[in-house]
Amino acid sequence: MNPIRGQWHPRGLDAWPSALPSGTAGENWWGWSSLPSAQWKWAPEQRSLVQQVVAQQYESARLDAPSSLAKLAQSEARVVTVGHQLVIAGGPAFLHHKILSAIRTARVLERQWGVPVVPLFWLASEDHDWKEVSTVHGMKQGHQWIPEDAGTPWPVGRRSLNGLTEVIQAWGQDGPHQQEADSVAREVRLAQTCGESLAGVFRRWLHRWYGEDGLLVLDPDDASLKAAASHLWCNEMKGAGVAHMIGSKAQSGPAHVRDNQLFWLGDAAQGRVGLVPDAQKGGWQAGSMSVTKPEAGWEEWAVSNAAHCSPGVLLRPLYQEFLLESAAVVVGPGEWGYWSQLPEAFASSGLAMPPLRLRDHALVISERATEMGWDLSQGWMHEEDWDRWVLDGWMAGHAQALQGWEAELGSTMAKAGEWATNLSPELKGASGAMSQSLDKAWQQWKKKVRKSLKNQRHQEWSASRAAHASLMRRGMPQDRWANWHVLAATQGDHDAWKKAWLASAEDPAARLWILHSED
């Protein structure tokens, strides 16, 4: 097997395929909102609770927890947290980019600080938008899983796995190594045998891919964790939650600020529904259920109903950091945006805003794209721009001849116009009109030449389209649709790519990892 042909690109963050967080992309910015500190300590009550819950969740799944779990028993232990939706078969590649960034960052901080630092994955198991997790791309197409009772806004982590194996098998015929596809499907069947839902199989996938690297997986949809955070639910019900805390800045970021950041987790028929103001009765409305302030107060209500409380996008960071007090949180550019809405909410809640670390990015450049001369300096082009760039390159091969003929035509027209004007000044206008007509005809003729080149070089044109499709699809850069395991198959296999990534660039800065593949 050939060694991985990967390297950290020296341009780094300025070669990112999408917009970077606002106001951060300066020459000295290296991917952090602030520097992490070894001085901050994780509260022993929360650390002990998290350790117990993680251990229970692995035990319930009959999985041997990673050895890193024992590190959480140490008083100086910290975590580098990363979270993501439960995308089937790993979904788009940036899921893995985030996880590898967290593992790499944890290792660097542990070495620098001399204390245990563990990478921890926070399952986004309570998101109810199943369409965002349901598609996995192969080499040729996307493969979508449609869960049963898809019409109910049920948390994705609780959804049944029925029908998922068939989708994984179809994906397995479309790009990844068969051995890897078989193992992904095997974990689905095992999870079904154990009566697990999507959260269970996603834990199994992460454990298979990164357990040996120390990644711990935590499902926050847990009664004991939610009971510990009941004060956060209470604040939302009292009207003193996130919307109140951030005040006038409520609508200044990408995430919509709801009056109440809580969702209510009902039964399988109702699913997960938002709590909205109830104008008639006061209090809140959750679907068909009305929630009014009890005589005992919202504090008691929040404790009694904690298991039914589910945080929205802007409350989830507070819930997470109340429990974890992360040494760092690895995020993508979009996540950076909504975390940046929350400094006042963290301060008002008495919580420390964690350092944010932009995830690493990776790009696999196909042999076709390399042969065509594309590199990062060309930028990320949409299809029309790419086609124009290709044809411009082909026309450049004929530039000398075309420029010569254009110069000759210009000279001839100038001489003809001068001769006609000398013959009769009245012909000056007619000469100018003829020159303009010829120039227009010349431009139209060049367009036909471009079109002819495209038609005559059909095989090369198809190859150029395939090269572009390997980089962007429907306006999205590679890591937002291409599956990691399909890309990894071009590099040998998943494990080889992972090891090469983690063996490189032993520093905490966000980086761009460039690889080349054979078509």
Search tags:
5-stranded parallel sheet, 519 residues, 19 helices, alpha/beta
Short description:
By secondary structure, this protein is an alpha/beta fold. Helix content is 44%, strand content 13%. A hairpin with a 2-residue loop joins strand 15 and strand 16.
Describe the structure.
By secondary structure, the chain is an alpha/beta fold. Among the domains are: 255 residues, no CATH class; 91 residues, no CATH class. The protein is built from 19 helices and 17 strands. The strands form five sheets. It has a five-stranded parallel β-sheet, with helices on both faces. Strand 2, helix 2 and strand 3 form a beta-alpha-beta unit. Helix 3 runs antiparallel to helix 4, helix 4 packs across helix 5 and helix 14 packs across helix 17. The radius of gyration is 29 Å and the shape is elongated.
The total of helices stands at 19
- The quaternary organization reads as single chain
**Could you tell me the strand content as a percent range?**
5-15%
Instruction: Please compute the radius of gyration using only Cα atoms.
Output: 29 Å
Tell me, what's the shape?
A: elongated
Question: Structural class, from helix and strand content?
Answer: alpha/beta
The helix content, as a percent range, equals 40-55%
- Cα end-to-end separation: 16 Å
Low-confidence stretches: none
Question: How do the strands line up in the largest sheet?
Answer: 6-3-2-12-13
Mean pLDDT: 90
Largest sheet: 5 strands, parallel
Total beta-strand segments: 17
